[in-house]
Design a protein that fits this description.
The structure is a single chain. This protein has 197 residues and is of the alpha+beta class. It has 3 helices and 5 strands. It has a 5-stranded mixed beta sheet with strand order 4-1-3-2-5. The longest helix is centred in the C-terminal third of the chain and has 100 residues.
């Protein structure tokens, strides 16, 4: 077991950073605390296994958290031996008026981020509608061109069909004539054979 003392610097106060640090520490089964330091920094004391502390240090270096304007610019880290004095990890709260002000600031930041996301969503929606219009236009042109091609094929097929029908009719007529000629020839051969007997 080891102890780490961290001073986090940057946009770390009044943005919900302590809450996120507490959640990370609890997930990693660390004990200790996190508190605001005047005027702008946050102090973190955590105890646990070495690999858990290494993971903790990686995760608390937040740069642009998706739900708030947290931005950890730098951290000072000091390792030491664990004392075992903590039962769990907690947020050390200051004066209630200061804490209430921080909560209001966090709520304001979240509301502002929600508005930003709403505006981004509307922009993305408009962009998608524009692309959809383009795709609809392309598909409409494809459909129209395909229909024109079928119309041309219908005309050509009609001409081909008529030609094939005429050819079939001519072949039937020629077959009838051929059959009649073969019958006449057969009759003539039979007649000739009788006359020679």
């Amino acid at each position: 077991m080891k102890r780490v003392i961290v001073i986090a610097k940057g946009e770390v106060q009044r943005v919900g950073y302590r809450d996120i640090v507490e959640k990370i520490a609890r997930k990693l089964h660390l004990t200790g605390y996190v508190e605001n330091l005047k005027p702008y920094d946050v102090k973190i004391v955590a105890e646990g296994g070495e690999s858990s502390l290494d993971e903790f240090l990686t995760r608390i270096r937040i740069d642009k958290h998706p739900a708030s304007p947290i931005s950890v610019e730098d951290i000072d880290v000091e390792f030491g031996a664990a004392t075992g004095e903590f039962e769990y990890f907690e947020i050390m709260r200051g004066d209630w008026t200061e804490e209430l002000g921080e909560r209001m600031d966090v709520a304001g930041a979240l509301l502002y981020r929600s508005v930003e996301l709403g505006i981004e969503s509307v922009g993305i929606g408009r962009e998608m509608l524009g692309k959809q219009d383009i795709h609809t236009h392309v598909l409409t042109e494809f459909r129209d061109q395909t229909q024109q091609n079928f119309d041309v094929l219908d005309v050509k097929y009609g001409k081909i069909s008529d030609s094939v029908e005429r050819a079939i009719d001519e072949m039937r007529d020629e077959r009838k004539e051929l059959r009649a000629s073969v019958n006449n020839l057969t009759d003539a051969i039979v007649e000739l054979a009788r006359s020679r007997k």
